[in-house]
Amino acid sequence: MDCIFCKITSGEIPATFVAESEHAVAFNDINPTQPVHVLVVPRVHYTDVAHLAVSDTEALADLIQLGVKVAEMTSTGSFRLQFNTGAEAGQTVFHAHGHITSRTPRS
Ligand code: AMP
Ligand code: ZN
Fold first, then answer.
1. What CATH number should be reported for the domain holding residue 45?
2. Does residue 95 carry a catalytic annotation?
3. Contact 100, 24 (CB under 8 A)
4. Which of 38, 45, 61, 88 has its CA 20 to 30 A from that of 26?
5. How many domains does the chain have?
6. Does any ligand 1 atom lie closer than 6 A to the CB of residue 93?
7. Of ligand 1's atoms, which has the minimum distance to the CA of residue 83?
8. Does the beta carbon of 15 sit less than 6 angstroms from any atom of ligand 1?
9. For residue 33, is it left (φ>0), alpha (ψ between -120 and 50) or beta?
10. Domain limits at 52?
11. Residue 42 · residue 98 · CB < 8 Å
12. Closest CA to 96 of 85, 80, 107
């Protein structure tokens, strides 16, 4: 499958990893829109968060917990966790992922 996030989770192409967990990895977005912009991505391929949610609730919870951990590591604690779901909502990579963004990085 030609999926860029599968290639990143498998190590085939590089990314700047910031944390990982049993079911998910976190790496910096290549095109950040906020001072903190990290993606949390399940190791297993699902098209979007809706498919992840109905397929593996343990992996979903793990992904969200990793996102919270990343937000605590990288920001003052005020952050967003956003899942663009579907092309019309702005999803461009069709491997489930959450965006952790914050305007207030931890100094
Ligand atoms: P979305 O629009 O919600 O599908 O988000 C996809 C995100 O993936 C965008 O914010 C991109 O900047 C980011 N992205 C695409 N390719 C890479 C990559 N190779 N490494 C890190 N982030 C990427
Ligand atoms: Zn994938």
1. 3.30.428.10
2. no
3. no
4. 88
5. 1
6. yes
7. 3
8. yes
9. alpha
10. 4-102
11. no
12. 85
- Give distance in angstroms: CA of 2 to centre of ligand 1: 15
Structural domain contains residue 9 = yes
Is position 49 within any domain?
Answer: yes
Q: Which two tokens stand for residue 67?
A: 């996102």
Q: Is the CB of 84 under 6 A from ligand 1?
A: yes
Q: Is residue 107 part of a domain?
A: no
| Phi and psi torsions of 36, nearest 5° | -110, 125
Secondary structure class of 86 (helix, strand, coil): coil
Let me know: does 41 contact 9? Beta carbons within 8 Å. yes
Task: Say if residue 1's pLDDT is above 80.
Answer: no
Q: How far is the CA of 30 from the centre of ligand 1 (A)?
A: 6
The answer to whether position 26 is within a domain reads: yes
Q: Which atom of ligand 1 is nearest to the CA of 37?
A: 10
Using one digit for the tens of pLDDT, what is the confidence trace for 23-61?
Answer: 999 999 999 999 999 999 999 999 999 999 999 999 999
The pTM of this model reads: 0.98
For residues 58 and 23, is the Cβ–Cβ distance under 8 A? yes
